[in-house]
Structures are given as structure tokens and as C-alpha cells.
């Protein structure tokens, strides 16, 4: 559903960060050809030895089904060059331009693919076309570190796709889970200056949130402010359609809200909550507080508005607005007066009670990276991925090189100096390779822990989080009595199936068809509902509900309950 989920996160997840549950037992996951998973070395990149990798260089083409990123060769970055020196492999990355379904359809029609693909939401089509080769034998022969990291999930990976492994999800949990002090998941965001002017109120309900925005805009007519906006571009439409689920007090399970006690799964796209959410936007629009171009802007335009200092508040997932928040953070570090324009997260629900914005531990099994039938010498690609999963290279990909982008104290704890934090801005991340390798490749989950106890995710390391705080960060956290931004949210409940949206659905199945039809309806009607005259809202909603009620929603919910129960049973 999204590039960084989990981060669910993926972000995630996901953006992206998406945690996973499993043991980390290296011994039982060694390869059968006398290769062994590497002993962790956590002080930066190791140098290549004579036997580490083939000396001949090779470049593989790689397609990533997400737009808005820079095309490049991985060896143009410092991290990518180190990995090439170790393995001889370079990836020439091409990102999506235009419509994902059209691009995937063109590949399938021509039966010619890039060597490596990250098809994102098009992954089921790629699998149906048999464009990915099975990886089982390659992993067995060349992947000791793949087995070490992903081994606890192999059975689930195979069960999801007919007994074979066709792709590797972007991350797997290794070691103890480290909580995220920042917010990479969903939240209602508001400019800090708005909270300062209002006396730092705790905003818990939607009524409080909209009044806060309305009052601030009214007090500053000279600024030509955008009260709020929403993201609807292409596959990112979920940033608008998911909101009722969160306002109801549920985490991002996709199209369903799942009761943790009964495992009952209910859709919400046609619910009173969705009606209430859209009517809220309709009212804001009638008052001139909603950006009408939300329904036509592309992702880059949306991000540009968030960095313009004109948007008072909005809902979205932290990973999805990371480019904007990073730019605002960079500006504030250079000029502390700009701190007021940074955004602060609020845990908003309809009734102001328990929220579930923070992702529980989970496993995103329907997004990942695969090798296509067009690739020659696929063993080189598997070896490249396996090398990336050596612990010292996971340190490299996250932390960089010791002495350049991080230090180690006498207790063996990783940290960054203020000078390092200040220099590692968005431009530096792109040039160094942090941005290239932070997703789209096999990796430890960001919430993972290295063998020496350090956090895999730099921002998850308490020493780095504390050092990265500006005076403005410290001030607003103190005003709310918080140590981290995550402290404002309710702790997540245990959900073994999470995220439910990642449960695979076969192309052409009843569940997949329901989702396609539902998406078409929401994209057709949501703009009409938000932009309609308030007097016409009920009539447009009735038209939407008439169409929505034709869908086999009961069958879709029944299918989800069955799948969730299966996952829960396996997890026992």
C-alpha cells in the first residue's frame, strides 16, 4: 500500500518502519554449502578480501514502482560504491513515471523486464505473470545471511505464494524491538506556532483540531494560509480514505477495522465515520479552509505546499511526508526562528479516547523485491543481497562509516556528534546513499537491534534522538510533558495479523475485485462530497452509498475474518 510503512510501515510502512516478530537464531539458519552467516562487526564497512566476491563488475537494471525519486546508479553513492567494491555489483535504478498499472502492463505484454523489480502495489500482477523467478534454491546455495534474517518467516512467505519464495520483503525484525521515539506513522499534524499561540493545548478530538485551525487562520488573514489539505495522488489516496479508521481508534489495517478480542473485521468506507470525515472536510471547504487543489495536485506539489509554511495542519503518515519534514528540520537547524513552522503530531479521535496510531509489531508480506526472468546470472543478485545483510553492512547502510557519520563511545554505543547531525541533511543523505538504501532492498527492520545492543535505525538510538533535538524540540516536548513524540500516543495493542492489508489477495479474486471497485468509487465520489455545497452533501452521499451498497462487502469481511484467524492460529 505504501512505499515506507512500516514502517508500516511500511511504512510504512511503510514510513514503513514495520516491525516483525521472530527469533534470531543464526546457527539453525546457516547455509548447507559450508558458508556461514557473518559474525557481526559493528564499526562500519569491512574491506573486500580476495575471496569475498567476483572481481568482474556487472550492472543490473532495477525498477522501483514509486514516483518522485531520483534515478541513479547505486555506485554513484558512497555506500553503493563500497557495496560494489565488495561484490562487483551495481544497480541502475529507474523509478516510476506515470501510472503504475500501465507500466506493469507494458512490461508484462512485452515479456521483457528489468533484472530486479520492486513492483509496489503491482506485485500481484507480476507474480500472476510469472515474471519473478523462485528464489528458494538460490537462497539455499548463496544466501546464509538471507536465511539468518528472513528464516523465521520462510514458512509464512511460502504459504502466501504456493510453497515458494518469489521475493524478499523489505525488512525483517532482528533482535529486540527498539521503540521509535519519532512519529513515522499516522497523525494529525499542526504547525508549532499554532500550538504556541493557543497556549499549548492538548488536542484530542476532531472538533478541537478544526477549531484550532480555524481560529489561527482567522487571526492571520494577511498570510494567505491554507487551513488544511489532503493527499489523493494515485496510490497515495489512502492518506485521505484511511482517516476514518484512525478517528475510530484503529491502526492502519487497510480497508478493515479489526476487533482485537473477537477478530471481527468490518469495512468503514461506507460507514457513518467516513461520512462524518468527509462532511468535516466539506465544512472546512465551505469556510475557505480546505485546499481544493488537493484532488488534482501530484505528490511533489503536495510536498512543496507542506514546506511552504502556509499549511496550518493536515493528516498523513510521517514516512510519507518525510521529505517535507526533513526540509523544515534542516531550515530550523540553520535558523532557530524557523522552528515554529515545523509540525507537531496529535492523537486525534472522534471521542478523544484511546487512539491506535502507533503500529504494533507486524510483518508486511505483500511488498518486496524480486529477480525477474530477464535477469542473467541471478546468483550475483542474491549474493549482492546476502552481502547487504551482513551485520557490518547493515551498520554501513544505516549509520555510515565510523569517524565520518557516527562515533562509538567507550561503552560501545553508537552516536552522532552535533556536527555530524548538522551535516547529514537531505542533500547529504542522497549523495552518501542513505536515501537510496533506506528502503527497497532486503534489510533489518528499523526497529531491530544489532548483536552489540545498538539500534539499527539511527533515529531509534536514544543517544541520537536526544542529540538531534533542537532547543525548539526540547521546549515543545517539555510543554507537553513528553520525552519523545511517541509518548503522546496510546501504546499499540498486540495484533499478530498486522497489517491486515498485507495479507495477499490473488488477482481476480472476490476480495481483490472488491478493493478495486471500492477504490474506484472513493476516487469518484470523495472529491464531489468534499467540494459540494453543504446543502448538497446529503444527496451526493446518498448517491455514493447507493453504489457502494452494490458491493459484496459482507463477503469481503468474511474473507478477511477467515484470513486473520489463520494468521492468529499460526502465531500461537
Structural write-up:
The chain has 572 residues and is an alpha/beta fold. It has 23 helices and 13 strands. It has helices at 78-87, 100-110, 123-128, 136-142, 144-150, 154-160, 192-197, 206-219, 238-241, 243-247, 272-286, 299-306, 322-334, 378-388, 391-399, 418-423, 426-432, 434-437, 462-468, 471-479, 510-531, 537-548, 553-571; strands at 58-64, 72-73, 89-95, 116-118, 186-191, 226-229, 256-258, 265-267, 311-317, 343-346, 370-371, 407-408, 414-415. The strands form 4 sheets. It has a 5-stranded mixed β-sheet. Strands 6-9-5-10 form a 4-stranded mixed β-sheet. The radius of gyration is 23 Å and the shape is globular. The two termini are 27 Å apart.
Structure in a nutshell:
The chain is of the alpha/beta class and 572 residues long. The protein has 23 helices and 13 strands.
Helix content percent band: 25-40%
**Class computed from helices, strands and strand pairing:** alpha/beta
Tell me about the largest β-sheet.
5 strands, mixed
Low-confidence stretches: 1-51
Strand order of the largest sheet: 2-3-1-4-11
Secondary structure tally, helices:
23
Radius of gyration: 23 Å
Portion in beta strands: 5-15%
Shape: globular
* SS elements, strand count: 13
Average pLDDT figure: 89
The end-to-end distance, rounded to whole angstroms, is 27 Å
Amino acid at each position: 500500500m505504501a512505499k515506507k510503512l512500516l514502517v508500516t510501515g511500511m511504512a510504512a510502512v511503510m514510513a514503513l518502519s514495520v516491525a516483525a516478530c521472530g527469533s534470531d537464531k543464526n546457527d539453525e539458519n546457516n547455509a548447507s554449502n559450508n558458508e556461514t552467516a557473518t559474525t557481526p562487526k559493528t564499526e562500519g564497512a569491512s574491506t573486500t578480501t580476495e575471496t569475498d566476491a567476483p572481481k568482474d563488475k556487472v550492472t543490473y537494471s532495477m525498477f522501483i514502482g514509486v514516483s518522485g525519486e531520483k534515478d541513479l546508479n547505486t555506485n554513484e553513492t558512497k555506500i553503493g560504491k563500497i557495496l560494489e567494491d565488495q561484490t562487483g555489483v551495481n544497480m541502475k535504478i529507474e523509478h516510476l513515471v506515470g501510472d503504475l498499472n500501465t507500466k506493469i502492463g507494458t512490461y508484462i505484454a512485452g515479456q521483457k523486464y528489468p533484472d530486479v523489480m520492486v513492483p509496489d502495489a503491482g506485485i500481484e500482477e507480476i507474480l500472476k505473470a510469472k515474471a519473478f523467478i523462485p528464489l528458494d534454491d538460490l537462497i539455499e546455495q548463496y544466501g546464509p545471511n538471507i536465511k539468518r534474517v528472513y528464516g523465521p518467516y520462510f514458512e509464512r512467505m511460502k504459504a502466501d505464494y504456493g510453497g515458494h519464495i518469489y521475493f524478499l520483503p523489505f525488512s525483517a525484525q532482528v533482535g529486540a524491538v527498539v521503540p521509535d521515539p519519532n512519529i513515522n506513522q499516522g497523525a494529525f499534524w499542526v504547525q508549532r506556532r499554532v500550538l504556541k499561540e493557543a497556549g499549548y493545548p492538548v488536542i484530542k478530538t476532531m472538533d478541537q483540531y478544526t477549531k484550532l485551525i480555524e481560529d489561527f487562520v482567522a487571526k492571520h488573514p494577511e498570510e494567505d494560509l491554507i487551513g488544511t489539505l489532503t493527499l489523493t495522488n494515485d496510490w497515495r489516496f489512502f492518506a485521505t480514505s484511511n482517516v476514518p479508521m484512525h478517528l475510530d481508534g484503529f491502526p492502519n489495517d487497510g480497508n478493515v477495522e479489526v476487533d482485537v478480542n473477537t477478530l471481527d473485521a468490518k469495512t468503514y468506507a461506507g460507514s457513518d465515520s467516513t461520512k462524518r470525515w468527509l462532511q468535516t472536510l466539506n465544512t472546512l471547504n465551505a469556510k475557505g479552509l480546505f485546499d481544493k487543489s488537493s484532488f488534482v495536485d501530484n505528490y511533489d506539489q503536495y510536498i512543496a505546499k507542506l514546506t511552504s509554511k502556509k499549511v496550518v495542519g493536515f493528516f498523513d503518515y510521517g514516512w510519507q511526508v518525510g521529505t517535507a519534514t526533513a526540509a523544515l528540520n534542516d531550515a530550523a537547524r540553520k535558523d532557530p526562528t524557523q522552528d515554529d513552522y515545523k509540525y507537531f503530531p496529535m492523537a486525534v479521535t472522534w471521542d478523544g479516547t484511546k487512539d491506535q496510531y502507533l503500529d504494533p509489531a507486524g510483518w508486511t508480506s505483500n511488498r518486496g523485491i524480486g529477480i525477474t526472468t530477464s535477469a542473467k546470472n541471478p546468483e550475483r543478485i542474491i549474493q549482492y543481497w546476502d552481502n547487504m545483510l551482513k551485520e557490518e553492512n547493515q551498520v554501513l547502510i544505516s549509520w555510515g562509516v565510523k569517524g565520518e557519520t557516527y562515533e562509538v563511545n567507550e561503552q560501545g554505543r553508537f552516536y552522532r556528534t552535533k556536527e555530524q547531525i548538522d551535516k547529514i541533511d537531505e542533500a547529504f543523505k542522497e549523495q552518501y546513499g542513505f536515501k537510496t538504501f533506506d528502503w527497497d532492498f532486503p534489510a533489518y527492520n528499523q526497529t531491530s537491534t544489532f548483536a552489540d545492543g545498538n539500534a539499527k535505525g539511527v533515529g531509534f538510538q536514544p543517544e541520537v534522538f536526544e542529540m538531534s533535538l533542537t532547543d525548539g524540540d526540547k521546549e515543545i516536548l517539555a510543554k507537553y510533558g513528553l520525552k519523545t513524540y511517541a509518548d503522546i500516543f496510546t501504546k499499540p495493542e498486540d495484533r499478530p495479523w498486522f497489517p491486515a492489508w498485507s495479507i495477499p489477495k490473488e488477482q481476480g479474486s472476490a476480495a481483490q475485485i472488491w478493493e478495486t471497485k471500492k477504490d474506484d468509487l472513493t476516487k469518484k465520489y470523495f472529491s464531489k462530497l468534499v467540494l459540494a455545497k453543504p446543502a448538497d452533501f446529503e444527496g451526493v452521499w446518498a448517491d455514493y452509498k447507493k453504489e457502494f451498497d452494490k458491493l459484496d462487502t459482507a463477503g469481503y469481511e468474511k474473507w478477511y475474518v477467515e484470513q486473520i484467524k489463520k494468521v492468529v492460529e499460526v502465531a500461537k
